Amino acid sequence: MGGVAWNRKGYRHMKKISITVPCYNEAGNVRKMAETLTSIMKGLPYDYEIVFTDNCSTDGTREILRELAGKDSRIKVLLNSRNYGVDGRSARNTSQYLSGDVMIWIACDFQDPPELIPEFIRCWEEGYMVVCGQKTGSREGKIKYGCRSIFYKLIQMLSDVPQYEHISGIMLYDRKVMLECIKADYDINLRFLLADMGYKVKLIQYEQRERKSGRSSYNIWRYLTFAINSMVVTSSAPLRMMTVLGIIMSAISFLIGIIYLVLKLTSWHNFQAGTAPVLIGMFFLGSVQLLFMGILGEYVSVILRKVTKRPDVILSDKLNFDDIQEKVSNL
């Protein structure tokens, strides 16, 4: 692997790897992750920085990060003023502070093996702009992994562009790709944005491990919210399905009405329809209308986020970032 590149002014410099680690309440993992990443990078011919982004942890993670940053200037820390979540604004904001020729994104829970990083960098040196880990299995449980598989199949079926399945935990982006991601809509998750951008992606398969320590902050409601948001931002198919289903139901209702009319006219005294079909039909149509209103509401909420000028991620503190290394406009 070659560790030398040319900067914009024509000077040679050692290629730099930026590793970003989002964390929330990872007091049991963050120290070990810093040690593991430092050990891996010291064995490679590259300059590097390790950037931890803390989403307002409450378990002492921030204090540990301050300690780590005080001992090693290559460990840098961004402390968010509140929990902005792993994806979206927080991820884009972190990317703006990275100074490397390539960015590696890895979670702090050790479910995705940091030992894959040298292989990711080797693929990048071979010319791949994007390298992603793809889970072939998971020790987090067959039920959860099965639900994830169903989710990806559904997104694949509904999405306007082909999507990659079971990627999320560990990813590598060339700096060019990173800059494009920063300019993109933060409502679109990075894994779905890749498919839309069209870069050639190298997939490295692995089995996801169990968490090394602690518990995931994601619960069923957050997973459901993520699934619905992913569907809305990657596809307009649900809106088309509403239109098609509305036409079909209208045709069926009209046909049933004609049949009832004919039966009533031909068997006026013997045909007793009763109120049950009316009530069943009314409740069924009412539930369908509520479903359609919910789907429309999800799309309207996306529009609302677009037109509402929310502030960027607010940092309560940043550690080991000098005055030169600010946002990406200066890099």
UniProtKB/TrEMBL annotation:
SUPFAM superfamilies referenced in this protein's UniProt entry, alphabetically: Nucleotide-diphospho-sugar transferases
GO CC annotation: plasma membrane
Domain Glycosyltransferase 2-like: 18-161
InterPro entries reported for this sequence: Glyco_trans_2-like, Glycosyltransferase_2, Nucleotide-diphossugar_trans
Transmembrane segments: 244-263, 275-300
Keywords associated with the record: Membrane, Transmembrane, Transmembrane helix
Gene3D superfamilies referenced in this protein's UniProt entry, alphabetically: Spore Coat Polysaccharide Biosynthesis Protein SpsA, Chain A
Superkingdom in the source lineage: Bacteria
Protein's UniProt name: Glycosyltransferase 2-like domain-containing protein
Species this protein is from: Eubacterium plexicaudatum ASF492
